[in-house]
Design brief:
Blueprint: H1 10-18, E1 21-24, E2 28-34, H2 38-43, E3 59-64, E4 70-78, E5 84-89, H3 93-102, E6 110-113, E7 117-123, E8 146-150, E9 153-158, E10 165-171, H4 172-180, H5 187-197, H6 233-241, E11 247-254, E12 263-266, E13 270-279, E14 285-292, H7 293-297, E15 302-304, E16 309-315
Antiparallel strand pairs: 1-7, 2-5, 2-6, 3-4, 4-5, 7-10, 8-9, 9-10, 11-14, 11-16, 12-13, 12-15, 13-14, 15-16
Length: about 325
């Protein structure tokens, strides 16, 4: 392969099993949105029900075009006052701001990228241990449960739930100081953790070419089918209620490494695609693949063009 697969090193695995592995997540940006009608406005823009957002629980969502194509993936956190924090892939941050401003006629919307805030990931058996450094307590709850501190402005979000880890949003300088005092873990190791866990990212395992329901938006609690209208809702609802979800992202194991990524997955013909892969600390190759639900259900033999065989572990989920 021209680019080596991300690997979970023995050192990183030891930190996960016996301590806490920490890493800056520069691939994600923090936006802030506010205004007297910000919740009402977002209710008509995002796939998830904004009413599920509380100070103690963030929400996962997607932002769509009128044609139902994804603009970006979002995690939304209740901030101070009427402020909301929107976490989005850094490569889509400007497009997200532009998209939300586009339909804001009649709303006093303030939205922008907040360069002073950053995100770091805490993972491992003692992932909770550094939270007091930011004045944070361990969130009480499961997926996307939150805790917060007003001075300095900081938030902890359960991400993922199993094995339990956290994203911390805080002052960029404070995070940099904290990271400088921790054992170094390369971002490639965290990328390997993400893939091995089966946690797809927008812009990597799925993008504008896929409908979010094919990217397991339901399994990651990112869509409501009861909230009413929003941009892209008609196509999304039709796919759900009329059996239009034909493919999903699955966590898979491979007998050997792929020659390149992405690459086709075959039965007697090409049926799917391996979107990403990583090597764990025991030299196993784990990946995330887009596959037909029917093919997985029939337990068909799957392989890559180089002969590597594929075993489906489970659908990707929160």
């Amino acid at each position: 392969m021209s680019n080596p697969l991300p690997s979970l090193t023995a050192q990183a695995a030891d930190q996960l099993l016996n301590g806490c592995a920490v890493c800056l997540r520069p691939s994600w940006s923090v936006l802030k949105a506010s205004g007297p009608t910000i919740r009402e406005y977002l209710q008509g823009q995002i796939t998830q029900d904004i009413k599920k957002l509380t100070p103690a629980t963030a929400i996962h969502s997607a932002l769509l075009t009128p044609q139902g194509k994804a603009v970006s993936e979002l995690y939304i956190v209740q901030g101070e006052g009427d402020e909301l924090l929107l976490l989005t892939p850094a490569t889509k941050a400007e497009a997200t701001v532009a998209r939300l401003r586009r339909f804001a006629l009649g709303h006093q919307l303030r939205i922008g990228i907040v360069e002073s805030l950053a995100i770091c990931s805490l993972q491992g058996a003692h992932a909770h241990a550094p939270l007091p450094t930011f004045g944070l307590t361990e969130p009480d709850g499961g997926w996307l449960a939150c805790s917060r501190n007003s001075s300095p402005e900081s938030y902890a979000i359960v991400m993922p739930e199993q094995p339990r880890g956290y994203w911390v949003i805080s002052n960029r300088a404070m995070i940099s100081t904290f990271l400088s005092q921790q054992p170094e873990v390369e971002e490639s190791a965290f990328e390997a953790m993400r893939i091995i866990r089966g946690f797809p990212d927008f812009g990597i395992e799925w993008d504008e070419s896929m409908h979010p329901l094919n990217a397991n938006l339901i399994e990651f609690d990112g869509v409501s089918f009861d909230k009413g209208c929003y941009v892209g809702q008609e196509i999304t609802s039709r796919m759900h209620w009329r059996g239009g979800i034909k493919k999903k992202l699955y966590r898979v194991s491979l007998s050997s490494k792929p020659d390149h990524l992405p690459c086709k997955i075959h039965t007697t013909a090409a049926v799917g695609e391996l979107r990403s892969a990583a090597i764990d600390h025991e030299d196993n190759c784990i990946g995330i693949a887009l596959l037909p639900i029917e093919t997985v259900a029939t337990r068909a033999n799957l392989q890559l063009e180089n002969g590597a065989t594929i075993q489906v572990i489970e659908p990707c989920h929160a």
